[in-house]
Amino acid sequence: MERVDVAIVGAGPYGLATAAHSVGLRSVVFGSPMSTWRRMQPDMQLRGSWDHMTLTGPADRGTIWEYERETGAAKRDPMTPPDFISYLDWFRERYVPCHVNADVDTISQNGDGLHVRSAAGDLIAGTVVIAVGITPFSGRPSFATIDDDRIAPATDRDRFGDLAGVRVAVVGAGQSAVEAAAFAFRAGAKVTLLVRGELHWFTPRKPREDQRLRWWLYRLAYPEQGVGPPVLNRIVGHPDLYATFPGRIRDRLTARIMRSGASPWLQRAIKDKIEIRQHTEIRSIEPRGSQLALRLSDGSTLQVDRLFLGTGYRFSVDQLDFLDPALRSGISVRNDWPVLDRSFRSSDP
């Protein structure tokens, strides 16, 4: 049976970058390349700026600036999913030595290695890197107790093609939920956005590039994009420092840094166009004929044809069902997350 040093499960940005840096090792990447990104709305505007969406390969090759020079691609801010996919396809072709366009079926212990089975064949890997992204871990809230095809994750863009005249409710206050509301409205739906707390809009602070002083001040305050307010964004840029804080403080910092919110372009897309009900939760869902009856926390009932859940992601090791149960049981978990060391290795070798 073929042996490799590293098998990487997932062909998104992290999986491809890991493969590119496996210099001197025999590695293979499994999975459809950028599959989650290819399901996104093509005109979605990414929160990360063009310069922040770069990867690197060996010797700092493969950057987005190298991609610009080699292909003549025009720099676009805000970036869209097709822009990023084009860059990652270019990166994969040049810096990923072996890619198998097939999903992994099972991984199990086999002597001194791990037996990786896929439709493309079997192999033994010394190490397995799991880079499946967030897609397998969509959170399903406690009120969604029924199994109904009319209830779907807000990220399921395949469900937005037949919404003309349809009554839609979207639950959530983050980027995915608000995007779903905007795209459902654009598809002709009558949309209600249900938000448990208040809907927070991220402020557009980025100055024009010709405003040199403002640009310098902006970079001083925001060295990275999308990682919290000034000072806190400096702390999370130093993970070893962040790891020294007590767990309770880290949890509070994470909640503030990663709080739910939506980009300014979405505010323009839905303002005065859809119904937004803040401080409103769903208590229960009841099928009533062709509709779903949503009993809300304010005592009212909202009847809809479709319900989209933008309620975040919750890791569960059991969702990694391609891992043999014996492997899964050996992975230490704290607060529903795997315990990793400084090199991002889990407790199970």
Distance between the termini: 21 Å
Oligomer type: single chain
Number of domain modules: 3
Q: Give the strand content.
A: 15-25%
Number of helical elements: 11
Return the average pLDDT rounded to an integer.
91
Helix content: 25-40%
**CATH topology name of the largest domain:** FAD/NAD(P)-binding domain
Task: Give the C-alpha Rg.
Answer: 22 Å
> What is the CATH homology-level superfamily of the largest domain?
FAD/NAD(P)-binding domain
> Could you name the ranges where pLDDT drops below 50 across 5 or more consecutive residues?
none
Order the strands across the largest sheet as they lie in space: 3-2-1-6-5-4
Q: Looking at the structure, what is the overall shape?
A: globular
Order of helices and strands: EHEHHHEEEEEEHEHHHHHEEEEEHEE
The helix-and-strand class reads: alpha/beta
Name of the CATH first level of the largest domain: Alpha Beta
Please describe the topology of this protein.
Elements: E1 2-9, H1 13-20, E2 27-30, H2 35-38, H3 64-71, H4 81-95, E3 99-100, E4 104-110, E5 113-118, E6 121-130, E7 151-153, E8 167-171, H5 175-186, E9 190-194, H6 212-221, H7 232-235, H8 239-243, H9 247-257, H10 264-270, E10 275-277, E11 282-288, E12 291-296, E13 301-304, E14 306-309, H11 325-329, E15 333-334, E16 337-338
Parallel strand pairs: 1-2, 1-6, 2-3, 7-14, 8-9, 8-14, 9-10
Antiparallel strand pairs: 4-5, 5-6, 11-12, 12-13, 15-16
